[in-house]
Specification:
Elements: H1 11-16, H2 39-49, H3 52-57, E1 66-67, E2 78-82, H4 112-117, H5 121-137, E3 142-144, H6 167-182, E4 187-193, E5 206-208, H7 211-218, H8 220-227, E6 233-236, E7 240-241, E8 244-245, H9 250-260, E9 266-268, H10 277-282, H11 311-318, H12 324-340, H13 355-368, E10 370-374, E11 388-392, H14 417-424, E12 430-434, E13 444-445, E14 448-449, H15 460-472, E15 476-482, H16 505-515, E16 519-524, E17 539-542, H17 550-558, H18 580-583, E18 592-594, H19 603-609, E19 626-633, E20 637-638, E21 644-652, E22 658-668, E23 679-688, E24 693-700, E25 707-709, E26 714-716, E27 720-729, E28 732-741
Parallel strand pairs: 2-3, 3-4, 4-6, 5-7, 5-18, 6-9, 11-12, 11-15, 15-16, 16-17, 20-28
Antiparallel strand pairs: 1-2, 7-8, 10-17, 13-14, 19-21, 21-24, 22-23, 22-27, 25-26, 27-28
Helix pairs in contact: 2-12, 5-6, 5-13, 6-8, 13-17, 14-17, 15-16
Length: 742
């Protein structure tokens, strides 16, 4: 049953029945309630009926996650929820702690790094559809996600919530997510706009970045979200840019987002990201959430009166210090959001924890896992040959959906890796488990408890000795470790302290490798990690934080029921110093952080400096093999308005069905400004039966050849020679073809 009774049901819904019962086209209704009229007409009608106080009341929170509507007019409240991997459990009105509902357990979908690693926009659409349905069922109007901040350094604690290091990949992947969420009458709120690439000093750090890097690297996914995805809300970030906090930033919000990109939706502050009324009013913010709420001086019943966009704004308006047009622009935007979501009576009811959602979570997780290394001797596991299977590592048994900050979830069901493996094997296979190491495990986040008791009394030495002992007699050993969602790991509000695996895991892996050559390492993480043992381990799989169906999806891949087809959405450097932000830029900086590396982020840096990564952007193996060849272009030159077709043949040369992601990179041979050796400009995931060949076709336009000219403040495609590279990874180019732009 749906739960409309649990919220203050606005007058409009009483008149039209519960949401989902059909639209309001009654001619006796006031125009703003008549859904057959154009949206803008309804907005103007509603606006004309509102008092000054009612207008201001719409622009700030009334609880942790909701804002007031206009009760007198039957305009409902707006309810937000995190985001971005599942629907956050209900919290108390004014606290982060749990409301204690028993019907708010959700499906956890894989983390966005995993989604990006599918390199499959269809998976994005499935993710968006599924999470949108869960948001609807929980009667949310705004989903606080997806996040598309660029992966600048492996130390950023929030990378797992984002879509990797490449602007083209994240742009392609973010659009279907948004579109499908919004089909549910739920706004996506793409975050954190912009330059929020670290957690250290996140509330104060001023990011110094050149215009080229801003436009070529850090903004494109947001731009795609607005221009192609049609996103209805954008969340400002905590950090500063050009000395102004990004939640009220003239340059980012008014000039770029609203003026240049024509964004017609709502700019929502990050929770506690607003610092000044005048700036919030003038510099593009529309709705304020999460500011301090302990100032009860304005009214004991509603501390939210004290928000920057509450009484202080009202007073400014009354004194004539703030203009009506700016206020009305904000209110129009909030009304637009309201009509698109809360007041939309055509939206579906949604569903929570449906079998379809669990299946979607499992499918996306399986498709996102990346086989980093495989000599074919361990993976895929053959339970008839590997009869004694040893699983080692805390992440095999640890729930990962609780923790990590605002994306922490309360799930109906979470299948851990060990459970997934146990479910997958038949009686002929004996599975045993050894802990191997112990983290600083916590079992609670914001009052949500995993219910797991992971306490351990054995010493670190003993744990290793026990694991080694068990490994000696095992036919195969699967080590499942990586990071977790604790502070200092993959977790909001902190960055990682170091690039290496924590809790002494390297020692455990080395010790296991010494006694058993049939070792596969599975990493559960949202970030790259150092692998000093890589030469001694025959198989490595990046499994990400994969949500409710982690264990089943992992078992699918380990036992070969799903042939891995994920590709890395970011580079794994050998050493941290080989990452551009650490080699040349600054991290974490202090009051300011200088992105001295400019546009040379991720593989762009590795290419420019010829630094071989541990695993390259776009890398990912399969249990079959593919050949990519016959790379051709249909012409040798391209005109300013023309297109060029690049084709390549891809063949499955192995003995099982599988999917390959064919990647197109473009390099600019002659340019006035420095350019990366090559940049991703196209990709296609192709499913192939053994022996099957398909031709992949990419259309190249001058737009794909252009760079942001910071002297002209415009994108420019400069005539000259270019190369189209086609391959299976950024470091695995199989063919190339030259052409010119006239
Ligand atoms: C996070 C946002 C989140 C918000 C609401 C903030 O701390 O940065 O990503 O949506 O809290 O929970």
């Amino acid at each position: 049953m749906n739960t409309c009774f649990l919220k203050i049901v606005p007058a409009l819904l009483f008149m039209t029945g519960c949401a989902g019962n059909g639209g309001s086209t009654d001619n006796n209704l006031p125009p703003y309630q008549n859904e057959s009229l154009p949206l803008e007409e309804r907005i103007e009608d509603a606006l004309s009926r509102m008092t000054l106080e009612e207008k201001v009341a719409m622009l700030h929170a009334q609880s942790k996650f909701s804002s007031a509507g206009v009760p007198r007019l039957g305009i409902p409240e707006i309810w937000c929820t995190d985001g971005p991997h599942g629907i956050r459990p209900e919290v108390l009105w004014d606290e982060w702690n749990q409301a204690g509902w028993t019907n708010d357990s959700c499906t956890a979908f894989p983390a966005l790094t995993c989604l990006a690693a599918t390199w499959n926009p269809e998976m994005s659409a499935l993710f968006g559809k599924s999470i949108g349905e869960e948001a609807r069922y929980r009667e949310k109007d705004v989903l606080l996600g997806p996040g598309v901040n660029i992966y600048r350094t492996p130390l950023n604690g929030r990378n797992f919530e984002y879509m990797g290091e490449d602007p083209y990949l994240s742009s392609r992947m973010v659009v279907p997510y948004i579109q499908q969420v919004q089909k549910n009458g739920v706004a996506a709120c793409v975050k954190h706009f912009a330059l929020n690439n670290q957690e250290t000093n996140r509330q104060s750090v001023d990011v110094v970045v050149d215009d080229r890097a801003l436009h070529e690297i850090y903004l494109p996914a947001f731009k795609a979200a607005v221009e192609q995805g049609g996103v209805w809300a954008v969340m400002g970030s905590y950090n500063k840019y050009k000395g102004q906090h990004c939640c009220h930033n003239q340059y980012l919000l008014n000039d770029i987002l609203k003026r240049d990109w024509g964004f017609d939706g709502v700019v929502i502050s990050d929770w506690g990201g607003v610092h000044d009324t005048k700036q919030a009013v003038e510099n593009g913010l529309d709705m304020e959430f999460g500011s301090w709420t302990n100032g009860l001086t304005w009214g004991a019943s509603n501390a939210y009166d004290n928000y920057y966009l509450a009484h202080p704004y009202l007073e400014m308006l009354k004194r004539g210090e703030a203009d009506q047009a700016t206020l009305d622009d904000k209110v129009r935007r909030v009304l637009r959001l309201n009509f698109r979501t809360a007041m939309n009576t055509h939206k579906p009811f949604g569903s929570l924890n449906s079998p379809e959602h669990l299946a979607a979570a499992r499918r996306i997780a399986g498709e996102g896992m990346v086989l980093l290394k495989n000599d074919g001797k361990v993976l895929p596991l053959d339970p008839t040959a590997a009869k004694r299977l040893l699983v080692v590592g805390e992440n095999a048994v640890r729930m990962m959906t609780v923790g990590g900050g605002s994306s922490s979830l309360k799930v109906r069901h979470e299948c851990t890796p060990l459970e997934g493996i146990l479910t997958a094997v038949g009686p002929e296979c004996e599975v045993s488990f050894e802990r191997g190491y112990v983290s600083d495990a916590t079992d609670t986040y914001d009052g949500v408890k995993t219910g797991q008791d992971l306490s351990e009394t054995r010493s670190a030495e003993r744990l290793i000795a026990d694991a080694v002992q068990a490994a000696r007699s095992a036919d195969a050993v699967i080590f499942i470790g990586g990071l977790n969602k604790n502070w200092g790991q993959d977790c909001e509000s902190t960055d990682r302290a170091s690039y290496g695996l924590p809790y002494g895991q390297d020692r455990v892996i080395e010790a296991l490798a010494e006694v058993n050559p049939h070792l596969a390492v599975v990493l559960v993480s949202g970030n790259a990690v150092a692998m000093p043992w890589i030469d001694r381990v025959p198989a490595v799989l990046e499994a990400w934080f994969s949500g409710s169906e982690t264990g089943n999806a992992l078992a699918d891949v380990l036992f070969g029921r799903v042939n891995p087809s994920g590709k890395l959405p970011f580079t794994f450097p050998v050493r941290l110093e080989e990452n551009a932000a650490h080699a040349m830029g600054e991290f974490p900086g202090g009051d300011t952080v200088h992105y001295n590396e400019g546009i040379f982020v991720g593989y762009r840096w590795h290419d420019a400096k010829a630094i071989r990564p541990l695993f390259a952007f776009g890398h990912g193996l399969s249990y079959t093999t593919f050949e990519i060849g016959n790379v051709k272009a249909d012409r040798t030159s391209l005109t300013a308005n023309g297109t060029l077709r690049v084709t390549a043949d891809v063949t499955n040369t192995g003995d099982r069905a599988g999917a390959e992601v064919v990647q197109l990179y473009i390099g600019d041979a002659e340019s006035t400004l420095p350019r990366p050796v090559k940049e991703l400009k196209g990709f296609e995931k192709v499913m192939l039966e053994p022996g099957q060949t398909r031709t992949v076709e990419f259309t190249v336009t001058p737009e794909a050849l252009s760079y942001y000219d910071d002297t002209k403040h415009a994108w420019t495609a400069e005539p000259g020679r270019f190369t189209a590279y086609v391959g299976a990874a950024s470091d695995d180019i199989r063919g190339q073809v030259d052409f010119t732009l006239e």
